[in-house]
């Protein structure tokens, strides 16, 4: 167990190597031999849970350990013909969050034909508001996360022209704060996860050059703590998921080398659960698929390799999917010219 | 598991065993053919959610469904479909009513209390806060598209305004960085268009914990709502903030705040930047100022001032020397960033004459 400080942690001595076979076993078991209570309690985000697990397996080249037909059938079951949206599980309401996860899963399997994609486009389109923002569903909550979901979903299907992309970008920019970061709505506090959504959306829309990469890059750099891990806001504890959100954002800004990459690798490796497999938020905590994907994703960006020549597939920093998939769809994202290459 | 106003059922009786529910056909969860998503529900969970699916199927919106949603929310408050069902029921049975000077309608009051209790129990759940927002919108007749309220009576509005400020204050007293609570509070301030007491609250939070970044964010929210960016107003704010700066020089939040504040200045920007640089100088020269965020801002402001003013070889040399220290000793984990700033700085200000001067200084 890692020792706790108020706003950082002290890492255990030597981090373990990257335990890919254990992580693959952890993820493929997660869907079958699961704890009843946890499984019940996470039904409301099942679709995203599948995307996290499957993407992580794909990065480890183990996607074949899950039967494709079952996954596609699950996604089809969660598709709402009437609205064109996807729900997290059957008998739940459709929402943009799960629609992106569903489309990401179908993209991984090259199975867009499994559903009527024109309906999905209409669903996303119907949620855009006059100010460019997006509702997450018909009930009207606005959040920058939903902008990312909307734009990424359409981009994967090559249907960005279905929405007002300029206004979508304008709304994102209206969420930028005095410190260079972004919050979930205009005025809300900057947060690394929401910055990722902002930067990702602008990258897909090819409008990333509308932000000052130096100012935001600095705020993101400041998230790295002595332990090597990143927090999501000042004075908060480090967490593996921020390794992804901060590093992916810096990468999109062309400034991924502004941080201490070796220290970050050490932090991420320390968050592995060496007995069960999987990654936890911090060393010694319980592992889950969410942190497992983001730990592996960050290691992939960092080009991590060890003496056992364990190698992860390359990840796309915007879509958080294997780069192969993004390439096969012929999608290009915009990366700011580097700030660190001098 | 039942809460608040709805009939409490202890010990718990399964819905399938309740005579008054015999007319509803429970619908078990159908997870499809996929073994990767098979679910083994707990018995009570399955029972409640079977009936939720049952009433969604028939479209029933009644008091007993309100009570059923209470149990379902108790079992899993993150299920947004159930919350929406609850709102549909509330509307259908006419619970939401506009507030007047005597307060909320009695039954509506119970719904507020129910939601407030849920918020206290699960403070970081999207659904509870979304529900609270819906209740407030109903109570004042708020129309998001026109940003107007149907209720105009100031006494009636004041009752709700104070209640919501108190609710968020209570939640922030548990966790002063709760994102949902802050968002709700900002929404309340903006729809009631009353920011008059907020700076005092922010000051109190910063006195409690000067490193509370959420409070710094709120400070900016309040300051900009006043729309006075004159030199006088900005200087007054700089003076107020400086009291917090001195308490913890390494605290990044006020330095970010100052950067943002001074960006609001028009023509008086250089004057304010000079003021901040002058205030930092004693800390920098005494070497007690190894505050990374302070030095970052200090360097940035000098860079700006040099770009817009006369070359100053001495200032230039000082910054180059400082940047060397940043890279090597003060902040090596961000060495690449400081390398970049150094290159930018030297390219902008270092002509050959200055370069010579710098080399001498650095070597000295």
From TrEMBL, chain A:
Protein EC: 2.5.1.60
Cofactor detail note: Binds 1 zinc ion per subunit.
Top-level class of the enzyme under EC nomenclature: transferase
Prenyltransferase alpha-alpha toroid domain residues: 20-321
Cited Gene3D superfamilies: 1.50.10.20
InterPro entries: PGGT1B-like, Prenyltrans, Ptb1, Terpenoid_cyclase/PrenylTrfase
Catalytic activity annotation: geranylgeranyl diphosphate + L-cysteinyl-[protein] = S-geranylgeranyl-L-cysteinyl-[protein] + diphosphate
Signal sequence annotation: none
Cofactor list: Zn(2+)
Keywords annotated in UniProt: Metal-binding, Prenyltransferase, Repeat, Transferase, Zinc
Domain of life: Eukaryota
Entry similarity comment: Belongs to the protein prenyltransferase subunit beta family.
Function text: Catalyzes the transfer of a geranylgeranyl moiety from geranylgeranyl diphosphate to both cysteines of proteins with the C-terminal sequence -XXCC, -XCXC and -CCXX.
PANTHER family registered for this protein in UniProt: GERANYLGERANYL TRANSFERASE TYPE BETA SUBUNIT, GERANYLGERANYL TRANSFERASE TYPE-2 SUBUNIT BETA
Name of the protein this chain belongs to: Geranylgeranyl transferase type-2 subunit beta
Organism, as annotated: Orchesella dallaii
From TrEMBL, chain B:
Segments of this protein annotated with the region Disordered: 1-33
Cofactor: Mg(2+)
UniProt keyword list: Magnesium, Prenyltransferase, Repeat, Transferase
Gene3D superfamilies noted in UniProt: Protein prenylyltransferase
Enzyme class, spelled out: transferase
Annotated PROSITE patterns: PFTA
UniProt protein name: Protein farnesyltransferase/geranylgeranyltransferase type-1 subunit alpha
Organism: Orchesella dallaii
């Amino acid at each position: 167990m890692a020792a706790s400080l108020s706003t950082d942690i002290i890492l255990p001595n030597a981090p373990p190597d990257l335990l890919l076979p254990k992580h693959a076993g952890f993820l493929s078991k997660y869907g079958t031999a699961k704890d009843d209570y946890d499984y019940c309690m996470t039904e409301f985000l099942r679709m995203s849970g599948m995307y996290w697990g499957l993407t992580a397996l794909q990065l480890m080249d183990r996607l074949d350990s899950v039967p494709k037909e079952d996954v596609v059938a699950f996604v089809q079951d969660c598709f709402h013909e009437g609205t064109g949206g996807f729900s997290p599980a059957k008998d739940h309401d459709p929402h943009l969050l799960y629609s992106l996860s569903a489309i990401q899963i179908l993209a991984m399997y090259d199975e867009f034909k499994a559903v009527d994609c024109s309906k999905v486009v209409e669903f996303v389109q119907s949620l855009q508001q006059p100010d460019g923002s997006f509702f997450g569903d018909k009930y009207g909550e606005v959040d920058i996360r939903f902008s990312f979901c909307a734009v990424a979903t359409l981009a994967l299907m090559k249907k960005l022209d279905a929405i007002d992309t300029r206004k979508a970008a304008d709304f994102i920019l209206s969420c930028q704060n005095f410190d260079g970061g972004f919050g979930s709505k205009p005025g809300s506090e900057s947060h690394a996860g929401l910055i990722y959504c902002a930067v990702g959306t602008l990258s897909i829309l090819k409008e990333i050059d509308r932000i000052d990469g130096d100012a935001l890059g600095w705020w993101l750099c400041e998230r790295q703590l002595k332990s090597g891990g990143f927090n999501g806001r000042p004075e908060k504890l480090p967490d593996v998921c921020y390794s992804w959100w901060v590093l992916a954002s810096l990468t999109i800004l062309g400034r991924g080398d502004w941080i201490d990459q070796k220290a970050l690798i050490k932090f991420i490796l320390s968050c592995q659960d060496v007995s069960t497999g999987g990654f936890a938020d911090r060393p010694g905590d319980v592992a889950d698929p969410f942190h497992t994907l983001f730990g592996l994703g960050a290691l992939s960006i960092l080009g991590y390799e060890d003496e056992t020549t364990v190698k992860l597939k390359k990840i796309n920093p915007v879509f958080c999917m294997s780069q192969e998939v993004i390439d096969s769809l012929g999608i290009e994202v915009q990366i700011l010219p580097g700030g660190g290459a001098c | 598991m039942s809460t608040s106003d709805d009939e409490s059922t202890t010990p718990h009786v399964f819905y399938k065993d309740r005579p008054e529910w015999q007319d509803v056909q429970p619908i078990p969860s159908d997870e499809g053919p996929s073994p990767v998503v098979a679910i083994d529900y707990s018995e009570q969970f399955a029972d409640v959610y079977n009936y939720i699916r049952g009433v969604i199927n028939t479209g029933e919106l009644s008091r007993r469904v309100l009570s059923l949603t209470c149990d379902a929310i108790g079992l899993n408050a993150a299920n947004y479909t159930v919350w929406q069902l609850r709102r549909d029921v509330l509307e259908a049975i006419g619970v939401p009513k506009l507030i007047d000077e005597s307060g909320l309608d009695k039954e509506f009051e119970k719904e507020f209390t129910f939601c407030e209790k849920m918020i206290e129990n699960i403070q970081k759940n999207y659904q509870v806060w979304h529900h609270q927002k819906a209740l407030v919108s109903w109570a004042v007749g708020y129309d998001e598209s026109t940003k107007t309220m149907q209720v105009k009576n100031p006494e009636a509005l004041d009752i709700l305004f104070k209640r919501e400020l108190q609710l968020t204050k209570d939640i922030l007293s548990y966790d002063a960085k709760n994102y949902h609570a802050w968002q709700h509070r900002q929404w309340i301030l903006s729809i009631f268009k009353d920011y008059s007491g907020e700076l005092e609250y922010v000051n109190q939070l910063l006195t409690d914990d000067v490193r509370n970044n959420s409070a710094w964010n709120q400070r900016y929210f309040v300051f900009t709502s006043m729309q006075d960016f004159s030199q006088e107003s900005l200087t007054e704010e700089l003076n107020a903030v400086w009291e917090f700066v001195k308490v913890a020089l390494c605290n990044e939040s006020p330095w970010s705040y100052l950067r943002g504040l001074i960006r609001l200045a028009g023509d008086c920007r250089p004057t304010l930047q000079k003021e901040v640089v002058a205030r930092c100088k004693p800390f920098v020269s005494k070497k007690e100022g190894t505050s990374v965020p302070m030095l970052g801002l200090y360097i940035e402001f000098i860079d700006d001032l040099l770009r817009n003013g006369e070359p100053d070889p001495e200032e230039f040399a000082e910054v180059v020397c400082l940047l060397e220290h940043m890279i090597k000793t003060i902040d090596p984990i961000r060495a690449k960033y400081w390398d970049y700033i150094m290159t930018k700085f030297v390219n902008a200000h270092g002509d050959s004459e200055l370069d010579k001067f710098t080399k001498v200084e650095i070597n000295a």
